[in-house]
Amino acid sequence: MERAQQRAAAGAEAPVPPEPAETALELLVHGVGGTTPERMLDDPRTVRITGDDTAAVFRRAADADAEDRPSGQRAEPVPEAYVWCNLTSGNGTRALWLLLLPFMVVNLAHWMRPTAHARPRTVRLYGLLVRLAGLTLTVLLVAAACEVALDLAAWQCAGTRACAARHSWLGFLSPAAGGWWSAPGRRLALAALVPAALTALLWYLSHRTWSAYESQQPMSQQPVSPDPEPEESGAGGPLGRPGFWYGRRLVARLRAAHTAAGLLTVAAAVATPAAAFDRRPGGPAALDVLGWSLHAALVALAAVVVAVVCRRGRSEHRLDRRLDRHLVRRLPLGALLLLLLTAVYAGWPRPPWQSAGRLAGDTTFGGIALAQGLLVVLLAVTAHTLYRTAPDPRAALRGQGGPAVATLACALGGVMSGGVAQRVADWMDGTGGSIPGPPVLLTWQASVIPPLLLLLLVLGGRLAGRAWRLARAERATVRGDYPDEPEDPERTRRIARTRAMATLTDDAPLVVGVTSLATLLLGAAALAGALTGHRTPARAARGAHPLVQGAAETAQALGSWLVGLGFVLLVTWGRRAYKDASARRTIGILWDVGTFWPRAAHPFAPPCYAERAVPDLTWRMATWTRATGGRLVLSGHSQGSVLAAAAAWQLTPAVRRRVALLTYGSPLTRLYGRWFPAHFGPAALGALHRDVDCWRNLHRLTDPIGGPVALPGDSGPAVDRAPLKDPLAYGRTARHPLPAPILGHSDYQADPAFAEERARLLARLHPDLPAPRPGRQAQGSAGRSSA
């Protein structure tokens, strides 16, 4: 009711041209976290117009047949709500997506490359390096599962009498039992079912989510060119390319390669101990030859996997419906067959063989850490080369956002792997120290977590101090925005504090840059410490100054505890999300931000909801304008504005002439323009402004997410309206007898400016009053654009 009164008041304050005869439509797209169609349409009675239980378009029940009734009596366009929240926060299986967090983060790094000109090979090299970093994450996760199942459980605990006695479920594997499974090779072969099942689960999630979310074909468009360069833009900018939202072929190819890589990792973990035993002097020659043959086959198939990952990436400039069926089917099957052969080979009787010490975990995890570090450094050099071709002052970290995020993805993978290994080792060993425990490198990596957290704490204190100083300075500005209101110091402080806190979003590049650089340096130090041969940092510090020794012991103990706590929190959060819809929705918010982009670097990342949402919006707008000939306002809030922009880029020019874009609380420039400059930089958003018939953006100074589009040149004022007042009233007034809330990022429709701007956009879409282009508008329409 209050919103309707405000809209009516807005209409009284700002007269606009009368509505034309044809039907007008407002297509609303919500933001992160999701909502209900009843809330979006401000009506408890809604009906589904088109769509399914996953994503659909709704209307008020009274507007279901609005096109069949005269529209001249309507003061507002017919509202429709596109609800897509079930794409990211639906049933309980979404809790399994927590396992995929490092994969999601490395996939983001692919899309964070800087804008480039005339550097097609460098662009391809950037994508290749990110795909290889994603492959190392798959190997790292499966290697962590092998460490837990094969090394800690089957090799160490089951092979030690004291440990096996404490865990009766391992009794049949103990050599003391004398059973068939007590041989070390057979124990390893049986334990290999755990990491193999994890690999199969990742394959299943990737295949199932692609079928449910990303198999929607976009509207057919003509390819830009038969073989365009990677940095060329399609019609309407990079996101307007015909095949941008349809990566079926690449996802299937990468899924096959990563599945094979996971199975090969398990096969190597099973075959290596047996082959090492067979190479001893006096060992059986036949088994030794078989071991070398299996290792040669493992290396050859691993080379094929790397070659598949290195092949050319996405085909965005055309709608590629083909699949590499032979590759997709045969590569995982070949790896599975090789795993079965290694299991048979390891299980062959070797009477003198006994398990002792640890498996080759230090070599495995050390090699993975070294490979990830080298890939990140090469990625940083490549990103710097691209940035120099077209420097963008808005780009986060001067084009180093992608390498920084890739570093964080590797760090997340390391923390998850170390946390699982540490907790399982503590659980199995108790306090007796009966087994050697996890690899040395994992202990060193855990020990660098406390210094990293201390550095972040210092950085957070500095940012908090800056926000406090900004809040004090902002008080005078707040009083200037409400000159005719009596002074209320507490109200002024609250508004100023909200504005200052909203600016902390702009410090995200600093936090990410410091965190990633510190992580890279500390990770290198941990790898160097593990290579020295010292079991723990505390032992390495023996003989040093007492302060150094105490710091090393504290870091080691606290790091082990923090890694374990992180693992426990991950399991707890996942269990709660599986049962609790509200917790599942919270996880969905995280995926709303992280899974907008297609899976281009890692096939096991959570699914891209935009590959379903963007075709939905495009098809709806194209079919409705074709059927009615009416005008349409595409109205997007927060993340919905990003979906709206992506859908507008996919429209044909004939449809764009009937569509206006209204964005509010939009992160298009503030977040996406900074972190994804190649796709949302000034050039791309300028192309969107030229392609869409008219565009208006609303923002508030109290909004921590949304901000101005701020296009360079004369076209900027035509898009951004001056910041909206928030709160709408400083104190109690006749129009606001109760204190007006500080809205921040929410409820932009409550501001009278929303209805005013929507009405003006519809008026500009009138066929008898074509909207002027940006160049002429800056000269002849200054009054309207500065409203």
Automatic annotation (TrEMBL):
Coiled coil: none annotated. SUPFAM superfamilies: alpha/beta-Hydrolases. Residues 778-787 have a biased composition (Polar residues). It comes from the Bacteria. Residues 1-22, 216-240, 765-787 are annotated as: Disordered. Signal peptide: none annotated. The chain crosses the membrane at residues 125-145, 188-205, 256-277, 289-310, 331-348, 368-387, 399-421, 441-465, 508-534, 554-574. The keyword NAD does not apply. Keywords: Membrane, Transmembrane, Transmembrane helix. This is Integral membrane protein.
